[in-house]
What does this fold into?
Amino acid sequence: MIFTPVRELAGLVRARKVSPVELAELSLDRLERLGPKYNAVVTVMREHGLTQARRAEGEIAAGDYRGPLHGIPYGAKDLLATAGAPTTWGAAPYKDQRFDFDATVIRKLEEAGAVLVAKLAMIELAGGMGYRQPTASFTGPCINPWDANAWTGGSSSGSGAAVAAGLVPFAIGSETWGSILSPAGYCGLAGLRPTYGRVSRHGAMALCWTLDKLGPLAQTADDCGLVLDAMAGSDPKDPTASDRPYRYDAADRKEFSFGVITNVTDGCEDAVAENFARSLGVLRKMGTVEEVTLPDLPYEQITRTILQVEAASAFEDLIESGGIAGLTAPEDRTTPYARDAILAKDYLKAMRLRGVMAREIDRVLGRFDALVAPGRINEAPVLGQEFRSAISATAKDVMGAVGNGAGLPAVCVPNGFGARGLPTGIQFMGRAWEENTILAAARVYQSLTDWHTRHPKFG
Amino acid sequence: MSEPVKPDPEADALFEIVRQRYGDRLTLEQLEELRKIVRAQVEAARTIRPVRLTNADEPMQRFAPYREEPPLTFDPLTFDPLTFDPLTLPSPQRGERDAP
It folds into this structure.
């Protein structure tokens, strides 16, 4: 059952060849036994999970089958409010925080019959304070199941580790800039960043109101579609959640048109560039691949300015009170103070330029089904070292800046291995609300490759 | 020996705000690190400022006047998507009670 995609598990559950209680027990045992090895888990929800699993089992036995997530265990990044467990936001100052309600996403997944078995580790405050090292979490650095000396990426670190290690079939993460695609890429998983507003943020920790998105990490792009189907939709409790209807469409599609930004592999490790070049060969079998140049705009500076200001405002109390001294990473204890020096006019300029950026990228994307690029510029960073990142302006990430700044969907799937034997990935980024298009492309790519069928032996 | 940092009056003035507000809780080393971060922020701003916009280029952030309309709780039996105005509702992160 370990590493079996959700779609296959769902078939087994529906046919009553596998019991939801069995699946929950398997996940709970692995979470308790292996979770600490990866620093992947904040809270194992044994009683809660078994209760939901028994309920699912009874409903399915009675012929009340809700759909492909019914009876499937999952973990949630610990920034989603859950009534039955602490919600720590990965940060020591909030380690005892409790909410008396469930985030909308948790509620929607419950309605789909999914079984919540764990709250998963994350970078403190979703990385918005300027962290530069894997240790920036009060639960310790998340360890990559592919290599005990490597990080999972972040900030949805536990979501990446838990799925990659086969502790849960899928997990929920969040992305403000890179926090789903990074752990998906580094851990050899599929990770979907939905369009901004596709999924309600009610009950999720706010880092940046205009950038935060919630999305799934799973074994395959197809699984991400199944999970998004249950998560998406309008929500009276979140005015930014769109009322555009969403239904995952898993129908086959044959011809695609892909764009590749000129010099998109500049700054990538050699193996990442080589794997991406090989991936383009696969994409040419799926359709056309055309090089494209983006209009000259300061994309990274625009998105970074918005992120820095909104995060500093969202955590104004913690910063001004000096409470950030209780954070784990030394840079998180001081960096936010510098954001008082960003002028309001510069923030508003970034917000005005964001409109220009959104229109320009939509014009470019209108010619393609997706822009494609390496998922990350490198293999997973080594534990105990500072890493380069676009948020701290030590690495380039135009795709991330554009995608997050303009609120566009992207899915990352594995496309090979690097020099250290760690996974690399390819991302497909689409126009707003085109999750089905990029998922279709990623699904076909996965049908032509077998990278997603390989799993870590560690653990 | 690290290279001496060139003066940057704007960045230095903005850094002074940070030092005034928080200097008493920071070491000299931390303050120097923050000075570098402020400089980087100013450099980022300098790439944004020269991009020309028209008068019609508004911030990409929706605003609408607020008016509380009871009931604020969602009732699936009475919910009408045609008349529903999401902007009369509280912020998405605020739940039944605020975080401590």
Notes: Residues 57 and 379 of chain A are 41 Å apart (CA to CA). Chain A touches chain B through 56 residues (CB under 8 Å). The longest strand of chain A covers residues 410-417.
